[in-house]
Design goal:
The chain is 74% helix and 0% strand. It is mainly α and 82 residues long.
Length: 82
């Protein structure tokens, strides 16, 4: 990761939760070539379908989750190694 990207990340992590979520959605949208040209409504519908699939997997026990504290600790640990 470049110094510029690291600085952007550090700045982004200081944003309020809702702004970080919006930023993350925009970044993900920019990475997915298949979503280019889709309307915001279509993208929102796709995300809603994905969230529904994930929730169903969690309810059925097919997918086990991790609590936020341990997930964040793992992410912070990986970031420190960079």
């Amino acid at each position: 990761m470049s110094n510029q990207a690291r600085q952007v990340l550090e700045d982004a992590l200081r944003l309020p939760l809702d702004e970080r979520a919006d930023l993350a959605a925009e970044l993900l949208r920019s990475l997915d070539e298949t979503e280019r040209g889709l309307s915001d409504d279509e993208i929102e519908q796709r995300w809603a379908a994905e969230l529904t699939r994930r929730a169903e997997r969690a309810r059925s026990g097919e997918s086990t989750g991790h609590d936020a504290e341990s997930a964040l600790a793992a992410i912070e640990s990986k970031l420190r190694l960079r």
